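Sharing a chain and its predicted structure for anyone who wants a worked example. Both blocks are below, sequence first, tokens second.
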Amino acid sequence: MVRRVLLSGLLSFIFMGCTLSTPAATPTSTVAPVIVPTDTFVPTQIPTPTPSQVSLVVTDELINCRVGPGTVYELLGEIRRGQTARVAGRNDTSTWWYIYDPGLPGGFCWVSSDVTQITVGATALPVVQAPVALVNKVELFVEPNRISVDCTQFPQTFFFEAQITTNGPTVVSWQWEASTGAVSDVGDIVFEAAGTQVINDYYQVNGPNDYWVKLHVLAPNEWIEQANFRASCEP
């Protein structure tokens, strides 16, 4: 009897132990990995290759250095045989070199490839466009520039001459203006090469006065040249 009771109690104890709730497991905190920053990666930059300095040597006895790539451009200077110069570029056909003018520090000019020799192939040089030819000189004359006549001898005629010079082939547009308010039509002159061309005109005045005439160059660049003249009279 005693044994049965003990066995019964033992079974009850075991049963009670099995029905007890299992204590909740203590959560473990997740530790985020620590990332130690490293130096930012910068890819090594490969330097752009710079072409070596290109030079030329004069192979003819005496060569011309011009405003543009062609004999139609104004002559700026001369370079003798054996002299060297730095080359900055070429024209699109590689027949002319654009160089640092050895006779003008900071200036440039063009020389023919036929009378020079460069240190590298032409394809290593950049193409440089030919310059726009410009008017670089204007001279204006009035004939006569002074008259004195009898006051009954008006009107009197004055003759104008303008000498226009360009540094290359271009078309020059021009117009006269007089102090009396008269303005001429616009005229054009074609320059096939650098040089000087002349414009002639005349103007009549109706009385004594101090006058002026202006020549306006409108293209390829603007230029204004003025000349003064005088008409006087005696009764």
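Comments welcome. Confidence is low (pLDDT under 50) at residues 1-50.
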